[in-house]
Amino acid sequence: MTTSKKIAAFVFVASVAGIMNTTVASAAGGGVAIERQAWSFSGPFGLYDQGQLQRGFQVYQNVCAGCHGIDRVRFRNLVEPGGPGFPEADVKALAADWANAVVDGPNDDGEMFERPPRLSDAIPGPYKNEKQARAAQNGAYPPDLSLIARARGVEYTGPVWWHPFHMLKDMATAYQEGGVDYIYALLTGYRDEAPAFKRTEDGKLVAVSDADAEDATGVERCASVTHANGAEKDVCVALQEGMQYNAAFPGHQIAMTPPLSDEAVEYKKNADGKPVVPETTAQHARDVAAFLAWAADPSHDQRKRLGWQVLLYLLITTILLYYAKKAIWKRVKH
Amino acid sequence: MMAHHESTYEPQGRWAKWLDERLPVPRLVHDQLVEFPTPRNLNYLWTFGGILTFCLVAQIITGIVLAMHYQPSGADAFNSVDTIRRDVNYGWLLTKLHAVGASMFFIAVYIHIFRGLYYGSYKAPREILWILGVFIFIAMMATAFLGYALPWGQMSFWGVTVITNLFSSLDGVIDGLGTAIVQWLWGGYSITGKTLNRFFSLHYLVPFIIVGLVGLHIWALHVVGQNSPTGLDVKTKADAVPMYPFAVAKDVFAMFVFLIVFLWFVFFVPDYMSHADNYTPANPLATPPHIVPEWYFLPFYAILRAIPSKLGGVMAMFAAIVVLLFVPWLDRCRTVRSTRYRPVYKWFFWALVVACLGLGYLGAKPPEGAYIVWARIFTVYYFAHFLLVLPILGLIETTNQPPASIAESVLGKAGSDSRADAEPANQG
User: Fold this and answer.
1) B329 CB near a chain A CB, below 8 Å?
2) Cα dihedral across residues A269, A270, A274, A279: positive or negative
3) Is the pLDDT of residue A7 over 60?
4) Which domain range does residue A326 map to?
5) Would you say residue B133 lies in a domain?
6) Is A311 in contact with B260 (Cβ distance < 8 A)?
7) Is A304 in Cβ contact with B260 (below 8 Å)?
8) Is A159 on the interface with B (CB under 8 A)?
9) Which residue of A has its CA nearest to B81?
10) Which of A37, A125, B63, B72 sits between 20 and 30 A of B115, alpha carbons compared?
11) Which residues constitute the domain of residue B41?
12) A312: contact with B, CB 8 A cutoff
């Protein structure tokens, strides 16, 4: 085999392997391809990575908490096992210094009053209610993030005939991370401009690469395209004023400005002065997505650990029951 | 009929005799659960009756404990379910045992129903047994629908909206009737916490109606005896084995296999069979892009949407369930029970399975394009199967000759004449 043939063969094998590894699905309602990520908590044996949850909380605190609440999570949860597992004293101090106060009362004078949160309190978000949030955010509502990782999913976009097998594979490999994959895709899915399209003579819109769009004329920037039937022209849905283009978001128009950037959050340093993981947008997105997975499913680790104990018991008992059944039926033809 | 076997119970001791003369519960257990003659040739599809009984009991137990923590009010329902998951001891496990349990209950009941269809378990003298089963299935669907409303997430709320609004189509029959029924169901002019309240009340009630129906179902079964893969009844001692230990050993083993699958989902894929949108609190102002019911309703939902008229769709959906009640009389094949001996019907049976699976798949897809075409094809086949294939094929099909008895099917001619190896003791 010549070198060029070897390279060609290698490229072929690699690309086939790549296609098979990249399972794409789309966000609910959006028809968008979402790439599956490898999480420490993927699969039946996966558990949360405590360091990652701690970094993810840091990202939440420094970036997301300005707009998004997480009010089903309590400060004490940050201490509990199976989560970020911060030392209790640190979380006490964190609560006492938290940017938003808790409304308590009424006191002995019958007045409501504000006080710093305690360990037992829910983490107070930036806004008192939805109206206040919308007023502050030009009418957009930053949703509470407590359950967001379970409240989002991915839709299958592959061929119909493969769908049943895809479902069986997901059941057998315990794929549960659709929401987390979606969050990661959303946080890393921003683009400066909406994708470029060119209109063909019969009115269809065809995607062109950014490089080609540079020097071409008649390029339209569309957040999404509504394909028309028959002789009608495709409709280019342009990005609205004040909206950002996001590849993962359903409809691709999102009010949230790109929240993350490289070195947005300072991570713990190793002995050599370098951060434990790179302080990149992708890493921040990955960490905060993992943190949100925990926030939505804090009993995850306990669930899987108990699950294996239960399953082991069931497997052994089932084997014993099988041989008991065989022994009982041994002398009876059936 | 073997099922009316003589009682072989002999009370041991004075206390047992005293009780036997007053309330013979031990005799009932002995005759119906220990000595009860079970066809010796049953396959594993016959283990689902026991599995379903287990499912019902498990749902009731987890449900009663969940009800201790749940708040059935519009403002608190979603939060209380979240609190159960986060703060109640093993609440995350209870909620999932109950939610996944409902799905597993339906998997088991669908296998049980198709087993009945394949082996002709609805044929005389088992018509009432079958009809009671259909009633149980209807009550299960009602319970599941009511229960899915309770977490009061987006899919709960919009599922209730879609399904209760179906009744408004009755306005086309008598003006105002549909609207009146819908408002009566809602307890007001829109879906509110009042609707949730009554759904909770009924969700707690209907399972106990199911318990009653299951009691009758088992009673009817023990009067006529079990059908078998050959479609033959138990006629002689050699056809049967006592329920204990034979059937019990098999049932318990099958139940544990079922439990492995059940708990795999509970512990490792707990959200697989429900919808992500239900982790968002109910919001009457925001409609989810796709409103889909739980998977076990999808075939019926596909039928509903396959019909281009609203009233027609609603009628077709209910007819799809009601038609099951008439199966014992729609099937005109009187020569054999089991599809084993029906070479032509066999194909139609599997076509029905494909149609139901296809409808289930299409129920989750938007009603457009090729999806709606296929939904219509499968819907037509579904009804044609019951209304045309069963009556007509039953009359014209040449069936194969089944063995003379269950014993013969297992032991061959010689074996069934005189001896059955391992003669079960105390056979009545």
Assistant:
1) no
2) negative
3) no
4) 308-334
5) yes
6) yes
7) no
8) no
9) A72
10) B63
11) 32-272
12) no
